[in-house]
UniProtKB/TrEMBL annotation:
Keyword Transport: yes
Keywords, sorted A to Z: Amino-acid transport, Cell membrane, Membrane, Transmembrane, Transmembrane helix, Transport
Taxonomic source organism: Microvirga flocculans
Protein name: Branched-chain amino acid transport system permease protein
Transmembrane helix as UniProt keyword: yes
GO biological process: amino acid transport
Length: 306
């Protein structure tokens, strides 16, 4: 274990955490404001990746593809909200889980029908290709730094939107007491639509940003959805600040754990046993971390006051 490797893996963990935040931010708002369990939120991430892949192939430019993918992801989210999810708000959580799981299956098959089952690749934009020296002899991909920068900018803008605008005030009020907000004359249906569409666009943006560094394939949003739920449980349901901090912690715990768990276990085990045990324990670390946080903070790090 070296300081250089630790720094590189910390940057990777930060990048992964910010991608998780983009997904979890919309999910925690939808869950916190609307009390709606949306298992299909991960497919918005997948759709965003597929949209940027399609538009990139069409325009030949990642920048134009991203500009086209964001409003398309927003429109797709609003369409799903109007056709399906709007009719589930007053149903119990079991109905919501079953219906949104059905949406996952339908859309996973839908992208196979449109784009095929084979993974797609998106080229890294030429402007952000290559590496930059961030320390003496240490190179790091420019595009990964761009993902970190984009995630931080979105986090700052989202913080300002939620905490310093009228729509943000309504969202925070809706997360605390949606019934009271509706009784005060706010069109709660419109608020739900805005929150859902915005959450879908954030998830689509996350998918679009990772498309050049990951394979774009059916089902790519399923595993990351589980991590997004872990993030909002740790951070506190409905809390953007909690989602941001929890996402960064999960990103660092997962990345550093997978990189260094086998090395640390070599201090007490022989190399073969340490490698095998480390690979087995590493994926469990985020859930152990979640259990530890919930033991001391059962409502999460920054629960919304109700």
């Amino acid at each position: 274990m070296t300081a250089t490797l630790l720094f590189v893996q910390a940057l990777n963990g930060l990048q992964f955490g910010l991608i998780l935040f983009l997904i979890a931010a919309g999910l925690t708002l939808v869950f916190g404001v609307m009390d709606f369990i949306n298992l299909a939120h991960g497919v918005q991430y997948m759709v965003g990746a597929y949209l940027v892949a399609a538009f990139s192939a069409w325009t030949g430019s990642f920048g134009w593809a991203l500009l086209l993918a964001l409003p398309t992801a927003l429109a797709f989210g609003l369409l799903l909200e109007a056709i399906v999810f709007r009719h589930l708000y007053d149903r119990d959580h079991l109905d919501q889980v079953l219906a949104t799981f059905g949406i996952i299956l339908f859309l996973n098959q839908g992208v196979k029908f449109v784009w095929g089952a084979a993974p797609l690749s998106v080229p890294v934009p030429e402007l952000l290709s290559g590496s930059v020296e961030i320390a003496s002899g240490l190179l790091y991909p420019v595009y990964r730094l761009a993902i970190i920068a984009a995630g931080l900018v979105v986090a700052i803008l989202l913080y300002g939107l939620v905490n310093h605008t009228r729509i943000g005030m309504l969202v925070r009020a809706g997360a605390s007491n949606a019934a009271m907000v509706s009784a005060l004359g706010v069109n709660i249906q419109r608020l739900f639509m805005v929150v859902f569409g915005f959450g879908a666009m954030l998830a689509g943006f996350a998918g679009a940003m990772v498309a050049p560094i990951l394979s774009v394939e059916p089902g790519m949003g399923d595993n990351i959805l589980i991590l997004a739920f872990v993030v909002i449980v740790i951070g506190g349901i409905g809390s953007i600040r909690g989602a941001f901090l929890a996402a960064l912690l999960i990103g660092l715990v997962d990345t550093l754990g997978r990189s260094f768990a086998p090395n640390l276990l070599r201090l007490v085990l022989d190399p073969a046993a340490a490698s095998q045990t480390g690979r087995a324990i590493a994926p469990m670390l985020i859930y152990i971390f979640m259990a530890a946080v919930l033991f001391f903070r059962p409502s999460g790090l920054f629960p919304v006051k109700r």
